[in-house]
Amino acid sequence: MAGMSGRMSTVIKAKISKLLDKAEDPGETLDYSYTKQLESLQQVKKGIADVVTAKKRLGMQAQKLEQSVVKLDTQARQALAAGNEELARTALERKQLAQTELQGLDQQVAELQAQQEKLTESEKRLRSKIEAFRTKKEVIKAQYSAAEAQVRISEAATGVGEEMADVGLAMQRAVDKTEDMKARASAVEELEAAGTFEDLTMLGEGKDDIDRELAALGAGGAVDDEMAKLKAELGTGSAPPAKGELGAGEQT
Amino acid sequence: MIVRIMGEGQYKLSDDVRQRVNELDNAAVAAVSGDNEDGFHEAFEDMLQLIRSEGEHVADDDIEVSDVIVPPADTSFEEAAAEFSGDGLIPD
Question: Which of A46, A54, A124, A252 is the most buried (most CB within 10 A)?
């Protein structure tokens, strides 16, 4: 049988031959291979840590967005109760946007979780193979002539090299996915920085006109309330229309 | 024959299973060349399932070189074009 074919096989063969190229004498090949294997294992561990970090970051963003969804929903109700349909609509639009982003994030967190599990499994396999190689290495050194050792080393190093190439590719795919997600996370962060998902009644940095308008409405409602109370106390005039009593600032 | 599914590990296949995998391999090649995305995914998925269920898992501490390398399960149709052409993964 002709053996491996396909692009994946070609890539792996190239990687393995690169690993084996370096040294000529058996002892050197063994030690060089083993060092490379340990390095590769370290890289996998680092790769897993990166995936975990990315997952945590996305998880925190998702949490923030969840809070925003609740907040915006409350504010939409408040705005509507205050009779400002336009602002209620704005709040609902933002809630929709936050919900869409949230769904995307949840999906990505789940995807990263799967990547993490796969990489952890791969790391375990590679670790076992490297350990087996270490044992084999000693046997080869002790028992075989140089020529025979060369053949056995080549076999063993190729076998472990294949596992390394496999893990390497899995990590590459994980990194690519993580990069995509980082880009998306940044986009969400920009929306957040622009105040898109924030409390519409709070004034502060990055707030836009609609925020201010709603804040004014909240304040206006409170003023109206106070005026109504005062008027009632003094027994002068009539209370303002119901709109004031259901001011945006009252409900939480 | 020893087969590696990328990202999943190695499996030892009997000649009978090898033949069945080869048929699915050829079906995947045909689907790719016919621009049939659903057909490819179906053949590829069946192929992976067959290897996983009928193949004998190679122990983690067993150092073996694979005869055939199967791309990872999440291979896209676009990526498949580079793998499933000519004889496919398994030479006929």
Answer: A54
B62 touches chain A (CB under 8 A): yes
Most B CBs within 10 Å, among A135, A166, A175, to test the B interface: A166
The one-letter amino acid code at A51 reads: V
SS (H, E, C) A159-189: HHHHHHHHHHHHHHHHHHHHHHHHHHHHHHH
State how far the alpha carbon of B61 is from the alpha carbons of A156, A188, B9, in Å. 11, 44, 11
Interface of A with B (CB under 8 A): 1-9, 12, 118, 122, 124-125, 128-129, 131-133, 136, 155-156, 158-160, 162, 166, 169-170, 173
Cβ atoms of A221 and A98 closer than 8 Å? no
State in Å, rounded, how far the first CA of chain B is from the last one. 14
Which residues lie closer than 8 Å to A24 by C-beta, 6 or more apart?
A: none
pLDDT higher than threshold 60 for residue A204: no
Strand order in the sheet with B56-57: B56-57, B9-12, B2-5, B68-70
DSSP at A25: S
Q: By the CB < 8 Å criterion, does B83 face chain A?
A: yes
Of A76, A66, A116, the residue nearest A210 (C-alpha):
A76
**Would you say A228 and A215 are in contact if contact means Cβ atoms under 8 Å apart?**
no
CB atoms within 10 A of CB A185: 21
| pLDDT tens by residue, A67-114 | 999 998 888 888 888 888 888 888 888 888 888 889 988 998 998 999
Instruction: Tell me B88's DSSP state.
Output: -
Residues from chain B contacting residue A128 (CB–CB below 8 Å): 59-61
User: Given a cut of 70, is residue A151 above it in pLDDT?
Assistant: yes
| Angle of helix A209-234 versus helix A85-143 axis, rounded to 10 | 130
- B84 CB neighbours in chain A (<8 A) are 6
Alpha carbon A47 to its chain's center: 14
Measured between CA atoms, how close is B82 to chain A, in angstroms?
A: 6
CA–CA distance, A85 with A71 (Å, rounded to integer): 17
